[in-house]
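Q: What would this chain look like folded?
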Amino acid sequence: LACFEPESIAIYEARRHEFRARRDAIVPALGRIGLPVPVNPDGAFYAWADCSAWLDGETAPSSWELAFDIMQRAHVALTPGRDFGRHDTARYLRLSFANSMEHLTEAIARLARWRHAA
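A: My prediction, written as structure tokens:
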């Protein structure tokens, strides 16, 4: 019952607002660097980004290899789509925005630098 107390509701609302702000910053930022998010997250704290423009057929033929390459070179951890389904998952990466805005902004900057250098 404590979760329905005004203090608990206030904490919940503050957290919900913060996650919405992160989503509203991260989803467009991903799109600007070539990782569009086809469906805006609503209730989740991760973005499902289409990385097909970043796949090259050789070193990164799917999001699986791309995620490892990004982790090794840009030092950003993304999860390959195959961990979250079966339909066309090789072209998707999942980015969690359950982190500080400072870290998320740095992750986007690292991805952009890595992509530009690639």
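The radius of gyration is 16 Å.
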